[in-house]
Amino acid sequence: xxxxxIAPGVHLLWDPAPKFNRCRISIHFAFPAKRETATAHALLxxxxxxxxxxxxxxxxxxxxxxxLYGADLTVDARPFGANHNLCVSATGIKDRFxxxxxxxxxxYAGLALGTAFHPAFVGGVFDPEAVGIEKQMLRxxxxxxxxxxxxxxxxxANREFFGDSPAGIRQEGYLEEVDALTPEALTAAYREMxxxxxxxxxxxxCEEAETEQVKDALLRELSxxxxxxxxxxxxxxxxxxxxxxxxxxxDIVQAKLCMLFTIGEPMRPDQMAAVRLAMALYGGSVTSRLxxxxxxxxxxxxxxxxxxxxxxxxxxxxxxxEHADAARAEAAILKELDDLRTGPITDEELEDCRLSLLSGxxxxxxxxxxxxTWYYMEVLRGSGLQTPDEARAALRAVTKEDVRAILRQLxxxxxxxxxxxxxxxxx
Length: 427
Prior knowledge:
Distance between the termini: 59 Å
Radius of gyration: 23 Å
GO molecular function: metal ion binding
Number of helices: 15
C-alpha cells in the first residue's frame, strides 16, 4: 500500500491488488465532530446516497449500477473518537472483464466523484423532497433507538462516560433537531465538509495509469473548492473518576449492563498488539475469562463481551443478565479483570487467544473492504501504515506482562444498567 500527499489535506492510498477481479474507489472525508452540525452530518449520507446531479433519483441509480455489471455505490458515515467520517465508495469488476471493453474504472470514478461533489441540488440546495423523505427515516431510527435495548444501553453509557467532551457528540444525530433541519442547513454542512475535511482517496485493484486518472479527476473537483483543511483530533482518553452507577427502568425480560473503563491517557499506536490480546483474553473470544467463567461457569449472563476503542482509550463490557443477577454479574466482571491483572495466566489460554486472533487477522487481505478498513484505520491512528503482516508479527511478540500492563491501566468509570422496576415480575 502506497500513501502520498497529492494536495494540502488530501492523500492517495493505492494498492493494485492484482489477485482480485474487482476494484474499489473510495473517498473518505474526515473532520472534527461539531455539536452544531451533528444532526446535519447524520442526515447527509442518507440524502447523498439517493443520487447526484447526473443521476438524480434512485431509479436511475439502480439502472446505472445494473448496467455496470452490478456495481455497488455506498455512502456511509461513522464516528472515530472525536472525529467524524463520511465515505463514498464505488466497487465493481475490473476493466479487463468488461464484455465490450467498457472503461469501467472511469465510470466508477464518475459515480463516486459525482456523488461526493455534485449532489442532486434543486435551486442551489439539496432537493427538499429528498431531504424530507430522509428526515423521516432518520427520525424513525432515532425514535426506535430505545427499542434496541443493547444499543440503547451502550449509547446511554457513552453519554454518561464522555459527557460534554468532543467524543460525546451524538454522531447519530439529535431527535429534537431533525424536524427543524432545512435543505439550506444541510447544504451548508456539506459545503463545510468539502472545505475543511482531511480527504483520503483509496484506490484498490486499479492499474497505475487508471489510478492517476482518478487522482487527477479528484484534484480537478477540488480545484473548484475553497479548501481550508482542519487538523483532526488526536487520540484522547477520559480522565479517571469515581465510578458512576446509573439505572434506567423498563418493562423488559432481560436486563442490560454496560460498563465503561478508561486507561486515563491517549493510547499509543505501539500498544495496539497488546490491547488486541488483552481483549481476547478478557472478554473478546470464546476462550476469554468473561465467556468461560462469568457466562459458562457461573451462569450470570446470557452474553458478556469486552471491546476496546483505540481512539478514546476506553473499554466497554456489554452483557445481558437476569434482573436479580445484575450486581453479582458486575462484581464477577470486575473480579475477572483483577484476576488477569494479578493472578496467573496459563500458557494454554494465552496461546489459544493469540491463535484465534491470528486466524481472524489472516483474512484481512481477502477482501477489498478488509484492506481498505485496515489501512484507513492505520491512517487515523497515526501508526505509520503498519501492514497486517507487521501487526501479526507484533501480536506474536506480546507477553503476559504486556497484557497485564494494559489491563492495569483500566479503571471503571461508568456502570449503566437497564432493568425493570422492583417488585415487577414475569407473568
